Amino acid sequence: MRRSPTFHRLMVLVALLILTGIVLSARHITAQDDEFQPPEDVTFQPIDAIIETDLDVTNFANDGTATLPIETSVPVACSIVYGPTPEFGSLSLDMDMAGGPHTDHSPLLTGLEPETTYYFRVQGVDAAGIIYLSDVMTFTTPPRSDEPVTNLASPELGAEITGASSAFGGADLDDPWGAGSAFDGNPNTAWSSAGDGDEAWIEVRLAQRARITAVEFWTRFMSDGSAQITSFTVTTDSGETFGPFDLPDAEQAYTFEVDIEAETLRFDVTSSTGGNTGAVDIAVYGEPVAG
Are residues 196 and 110 in the same domain? Predict the structure, then answer.
């Protein structure tokens, strides 16, 4: 019988909660006996056995989020425990919708304070039940950025999202996977459609008509290869269409020079790898047109 994506995500969550319980129990036993003896039927391995890169927390954003990109040599269900003391206090799960163990991970850390040192440990479990653990490490968050917002499509500058093809799970504008995540300037959030593939679209109305000189687009993707937009078009409120613009990959935002005068812009996917296509970030640059 085919299981639903929700079922698989639930199973991953259960596995991670069990993993967390084992790890926390290990800490408790260590604190009592100063020597932890794992159960005979549980195998622990250092996470260095399945990764080749440094564990660096990155993409710090003003909303107190960050990510830890990890690539493992074997599929695992991955999580991070972290906090301002070695006792941690917070748990971050991998945000991939595909569910189950996989090799490309990007757990989202939330609630981070600026200029603060945090302790963290990465942990994962594979399909054979092997538990991989890192050492306890630290990272320090940077000061909050005071750079002015220049994206004319940002709600901070008065822009309004007027429509989208859909949002994963029926998410509202400001919910995770909601359309608002496409214009929030945060690399740790993303708008995801609900399986729209090449039919995905999103529309934004600027605070006022503008002469637009560049548009920027960062596509989301999933570790199973789906959800990546490979080209898109931009259509104005006057019906003029620009593009298609090609996106080489999902590693970063790509900027395209344009010469557009408009108040409303609609971004349409013209080709993709299918599935829950969407955008990490969309930006519009230029100058308002005097009324």
Answer: no
CB 8 within 8 A of CB 100: yes
Count the Cβ atoms, other than its own, within 10 Å of residue 266.
Answer: 19
Q: Does residue 126 share a domain with residue 176?
A: no
d(CA 147, CA 246): 29
pLDDT, residue 3, reads 40
Q: Reduced to 3 states, what is the DSSP secondary structure of residue 4?
A: coil
> How many domains does the structure of the chain reveal?
2
Q: How far is CA 273 from CA 75, 200, 244, 278, in A?
A: 21, 12, 16, 11
Q: What pLDDT shows up at residue 38? A: 58
What value, to the nearest 5°, has the Cα angle with vertex 120 and ends 115 and 122? 140
| pLDDT level of residue 85 (50, 70, 90 thresholds) | very high
CA angle 57, 71, 128 (to 5 degrees): 120
Residue 267, token pair as written in the block? 């971004």
**Residue holding tokens 């990272």?**
139
Which residue in 199, 216, 112 sits closest to 154, CA to CA? 216
Is residue 265 a contact partner of residue 192, using CB atoms and an 8 Å limit? no
